[in-house]
TrEMBL record, chain A:
Transmembrane segments: 20-50, 62-83, 112-145, 165-184
Organism the protein comes from: Actinoplanes aureus
Pfam families the UniProt entry points to: HisKA_3
Highest taxon above the source species: Bacteria
Taxonomic lineage of the native organism: Bacteria, Bacillati, Actinomycetota, Actinomycetes, Micromonosporales
EC number: 2.7.13.3
Protein name (Swiss-Prot/TrEMBL): histidine kinase
Amino acid sequence: MPTLHNAIRSRRFLITWWPWRSLAFVLSTVPVAAAVAVPFGLLAAPWLVLLRKLLTGTADPVVALLLFVAGAVLLAGLGPLAARPLPRLERHRLRLVGDRPLVATGSPWRRLGYAAVMVTAVPVVYSALFVTVLLIGVCLFSPVLVDGGPVSFGVVTIVTAEQAVPYAIGALVAAAGVPYLLALTAAAHAAVARAVLHTASAEALRAELVEVSRSRARLVDAFEAERRRIERDLHDGAQQKLVGLTLQLGLARLDLPDSSPAAGAVTTAHRQAKELMGELRELIHGIRPQLLTDLGLAVALRDLAGQTPIPVRVTADLPRRLPDHVEATAYFVVAESLANMAKHSGATSGTVTASEQAGLLVVEVGDDGHGGADPARGTGLTGLADRAAVAEGRMLLASPPGGPTLIRVELPCPTA
Amino acid sequence: MSDRVNVVLAEDGVLLRAGLAGLLERFGFHVVAAVGDAGELLRAVADRQPDLVVTDIRMPPGFHDEGLRAAVQLRRDNPALAVVALSQYVQHGYAAELLGSGDGRRVGYLLKDRVVDVDDFATALRRVVAGGTVIDPEVVRRLLGRRQDPVARLSPREREVLELIAEGHSNAAIARTLTLSEAAVGKHVGNILAKLDLPPDDNTNRRVLAVLTYLRDQA
C-alpha cells in the first residue's frame, strides 16, 4: 500500500506526487489548527489568565485554584464537543499522505488529546518548519536582496552581493531538502494523528464490519439488479432480433430451388443462427432464468425438479415474491444441489422444500443416496456455501457415509 | 383443410410480429389482425372471428402469462377456436391448462423458438386447425425422460409412439415416421392406453387424455 513513509525512501521521491501531497497536507493543517485554536482558546481562557497572573506574580491562591478548575471544567466539558468534527476531518486529510484508512475514534478524550496537539505541538513544529523554509528562501535570494540594504541573520550580516553567493549556493542545496522536510513533517504529523485518533477497539471493528456487510449487501443488490437488466436487455433485444433473423432465413430458404448455390449457404446460415439461438438462451438462463423472474421461486424449483433425472418431490409454500437476490441464490443453490444429487448421490428419489420462517427463507434439498458428500472434495458444495454467504445466509450439510444427504440453506429475507 | 384460414396473431415484439405475419402469409394463412397485448387479442378475436389464434404467452402489461390467460378465456367462450400458444420456456402448467380448456383438441403449446423451423411450425398450425393437438417435443421429452411410475411401465417403443401422439400425429403418420405398419402402431396405442388406465370410451379423445394425464401430474 503506498504511503508517504515508504515514498520518502524511494529515489524517485522528488519526481512523484508525494512532495506536493505533503505540501497540501502541511498547508491544510494551518486552517485546521486555526479553527481548533479559536474554540480552545476561549475554553482555555481561565488558564491563560492564570498563566498571566502567575507570570506577573499577582496570583491569589484561591483565585488561581478557581481559575484552574474553571479552565479544566470548560475544557473537559466542552472540549470534546468542540473537537467533535476533528477525527472525521483528519480522516480525510490523512488520505493525502497514505492510503491506509483511519478508523476514527469515538473516544472524546482522544479527540481532546488530538486537539491539544493541534494547538500546542503543531504550531511549534510548523513554525520551525516555516522559519527554516523562509531562511532558505532568504539565503537563496540574498544576492538580489542585498541591493535593497544589508541582510541580517542574527549573527551574520551580509552587505555585498559577493558575500551572499556562498549562502545562496548553500541555500540551493538546502532547497532540495525542502520537499523532504515537508514530507517528514507531514509524515510525523500523520503518525501522531493515527496514533491518537485511530482506534482498533472491538466496538469500532464491529462498526466497520457492519459497514462492510452493508456495503456488501448493497453490492449484492446492485449486482442482482444488473443481472436482471442484462437478462432483460438480452431477451428483449438480441434474442428477439435473432429469432426474427432466423425466421427470415428459414423463409428465404423456402424460396430457393434446392439446386441453387444460395440454397446451401442459406441452409447453413439458418442452422448456425439456430445454434446461436440455443447458446443465447443458455446464456440468458445462466444469468437469471426467465421462468424465475416471471413466475417466482416455487414454480422455478418445480421446473428444476422436473428436469432432474431422479424423481424429486417439491414442497414450496411461498405465498409472496421474495427479494430478487434471495430468489436467485435459492434457485442456483437448488440447481447445483440437484445436479450433484443426480451425478454423485446414487439416490433413487429426492425432495426439495422451501418455506419462509421468521424472516428466513429455508430451503432443504434431500435425497436417499449413499451420502458422504464432502465440501473438501470440491463437489461444488463450497461454491454453494459461498453463494449463501454472499446473501448473508448460511448453508448446512448433513451427509454421513451411507446417507442420506440433506442440504439446508437459510437466507434472510426481510419482510420490507 | 378449408381454403382460407383466418388468423389473429398476438406478439408484443414488433419485429417478431412482422416476421410471424410474413411466415403465416407465406404458408397461405390469412392474418386478419396482428396485435401486441392480451386485451387487443380479445377484442380482435371478437371483431374478426378468426379460425386460428397464435399468441405469445408472455405479453404486456405484466409480462407473465397474459397470453395464456387470454387463450384459455377464448377457448372457454368458443371451444371450437383453434389456439396455439408460444412459450419462452417449458412450463407444464401452461400446457396442461391449455389442454384442459375445451375438449383438449384444436390446441397447441410450442416453444417460441420453434417458429424458426418455418415448415414444421406451419405444419403444426395446420394440424391444430384440422382438430389436432400439438405439444412441444421438448415438453414431451422432459416428461418421458423421467423415471415416473406410469411412464416406467411403457416400453421404449411405446414411449416413442406416445411422444408422436403428443405432437399431434395420426396413426398413419406415426407408422411412416417409425417405419411400422399401421396395425402395429394401433397395437402400441392400445397398450399405451391400457397401461395408463384409460378406459375405452368413444366420447373422449383418449389420445389427448394420454398426454394430458402426464401433464396434469406435472402441474
